[in-house]
Amino acid sequence: MSTTMSTKQELTDLTICRAVFALWVFIYHVDLYLNFSRFLGPAAGLIRHGYLGVDGFFILSGMILTRVHPELMGNAWKLRGKIPPFKLPPAGMILRFWGKRLARVYPIHVATIVILGLLVGLGASLGWLPHDPTRFGISSLIQNLLLVQGWGGSNHGAWNYPSWSVSTEWAGYLAFPILCYLTAYCGALVSLQVLVTTFAAIGLVFVLNGHNLNLTFAHGLWRFFPEFVAGIASARIVHTCADYAGVRRGFFRAGLGIGILAAAFGLDLAVVVGVWLVLFAFLMQADTGLPAMLGRRPVLDWLGRRSYAFYMNFAIAELLMSQFFQRTGWTPKDHSLIFAAGMFAITLLLATVLYMVVEKPCRRLADRWLALPEPASTTK
User: What percent of the chain has pLDDT over 70?
Assistant: First the structure.
């Protein structure tokens, strides 16, 4: 396969993974209220470690960005072995990339902040205060608006608390052009070495954090960057083994088995390895241009395209359901089905509306405004 992978090849498997990761994180947060996982026996670990869905997003981001933005590699991959001059892509190309990524994440991010601000303001006028009013301070609002709340300045979930991971992703987007170019410049062998090093780094973070990878807010970058770089390096080496069907199937089966068993036993590091194996299997499948390994899954594909909006809205649903239960005097555990159904319905409704009204239009505008200029035509 070509080292400059086509962006038109099948990505259904990876889109489905986005849906699975978003649902995994959502169910984990619902379980924090209901603790229904206690009835699931050995499968309880799958729910209680649902925060690792975020790690899946981090790895996936590195893979997909490297795949769909080959222009940031320039001609570095063609010059390997010739000791070429180190020259980054043009500044205009990098700025277009940043503009498109900002248009991808920022509108939904701001929309959720506006909704939360309106809800908190309305609640305050009625004498209904959130459980932790300090979450909605001015300083944390400024950090959120600048997308730096996950860079070490805050140790608690202020405003839309899931957005700490979006802040770390934004840091990755800023660094991506040089990271992408470096992996292309150095070649597949170095990318493989980088991949091994990133997993060693993830292992070190795992050990230093008490054998746990649930680092958030001020510590999120330590969790994000090794996984993001692992995704970039994976996309650079995928062409070396993608054509072997046995390898693709083996990686998928091994990753699924390792991930499920490791989650059941609470081994975060092994879960991340399993997630990477599955994602790499799907990336190999996409590189071949063959149909999706999972086949057509319309519901999950539909949710996968809305996974970002879904992930960004469950905190709003949590606030609304918590206030409703507080007003009625109910407790989530005593009315678990109502709480879980309400959380899911509100999250899905908001995700659908914001995807259609905010995310899609903003992405289309950004694609139009930031499109590469058409090459000048020459006439004889």
Answer: 91
> Would you list the DSSP string of 116-169?
HHHHHHHHHHTT---S-GGGG-HHHHHHHHTT-IIIII-SS--SSGGGHHHHHH
pLDDT for the residue numbered 110: 97
pLDDT number for residue 361: 95
Q: Can you tell me the mean pLDDT for 38-50?
A: 92
Q: Is the pLDDT of residue 245 over 70?
A: yes
Where along the chain do its domains lie? 12-301
What lies within 8 Å, CB to CB, of 211 at 6+ separation is 268, 269
How far is Cα of residue 330 from the mean position of the Cα atoms in its chain? Answer: 34
Tokens (6 digits) for 270? 């092994």
Contact 57, 162 (CB under 8 A): no
Using CA atoms, how far apart are residues 76 and 184, in angstroms rounded to an integer? 6
Q: Find the radius of gyration of the CA atoms of the chain.
A: 21
